[in-house]
Specification:
alpha+beta, 42% helix, 5-stranded mixed beta sheet, Immunoglobulin-like, 22% strand, single chain, 2 domains
Length: 249
């Protein structure tokens, strides 16, 4: 029995090492276009790495038990009673509690880091975009530029953007996968999220470069999306002037 446990432990360590190597070798997240995405991706990889030993341990013990203790047909008698081991129970409880508290603290710090990322650098220089969700489209208002559009969310490269998000009918969810930002759009309430585009691109370059409703909102929920375009500052200024000319007509 000791040899079997030794074999299982070695196999578990090897499987865990292989799983961790797989996590780092294979890109798990889609292409990104914002500074904040790097924070989210790093945390995602870290959490996945922490989950690998748990997944491999449970899987190995399940497969081992299926073959080691299998029986043909219904059992003739009840199995022998199993008495708990207090040392194992206390150890398991202590480790589980410590991991839970660690992850809670890690997640809280990550959210604070994400919210505060670039805040000092962009103090007083954030570009505000007011986002309004309706069934089943998004509307974007640029108050400083005095323009409104439903066609696309267009942003300048390298400038921190503050999204002020609300809804006109039911709850929606403002989500840009390429930025890794998501916030609920709630009628009568304005919520906030931030992103700093760091790579030019369009929906044709990256399928994740879009605004997608992530809250089931009705019949056409799946088609409630808008392309996102990130432009160089000069190109963005030209786009703003074009939109202003259109609205002036």
């Amino acid at each position: 029995m000791k040899r079997e446990w030794l074999f299982l432990c070695v196999f578990w360590l090897l499987a865990t090492a292989a799983g961790v190597a797989f996590v780092y070798a294979v890109p798990l997240m889609p292409a990104s276009n914002a500074e904040e995405a790097a924070l989210v991706d790093t945390d995602m990889v870290f959490m996945t790495v922490m989950a690998v030993p748990v997944f491999t341990g449970v899987t190995i013990m399940l497969v081992y038990s299926m073959f080691r203790f299998r029986r043909a047909g219904p059992p003739d008698v009840d199995g022998p009673p199993i008495h708990g081991n207090r040392a194992v129970q206390y150890t398991w409880f202590g480790v589980s509690t410590a991991l839970t508290l660690f992850l809670a603290g890690f997640g809280s710090l990550g959210l604070l880091d994400l919210r505060g990322h670039g805040a000092l650098k962009a103090a007083g220089q954030e570009m505000v975009v007011q986002v309004s969700g309706s069934r089943w489209f998004w509307e974007y208002t640029y108050p400083a530029q005095n323009i409104t559009t439903k066609e696309a969310l267009v942003l300048p490269l390298g400038r921190r953007v503050k999204f002020e998000v609300t809804a006109k009918d039911v709850i929606h969810s403002f989500w840009v996968p390429a930025f890794r930002v998501k916030i609920d759009a709630v009628p009568g309430l304005t919520t906030f999220t931030y992103a700093t585009p760091n790579r030019v691109g369009t929906l044709n370059d990256n399928v994740s470069l879009r605004v997608q409703c992530a809250e089931l909102c009705g019949l056409a929920h799946g088609s409630m999306e808008t392309p996102v375009t990130v432009l160089e500052p000069a190109a963005f200024d030209a786009w703003v002037q074009e939109q202003q000319r259109k609205e002036a007509k």
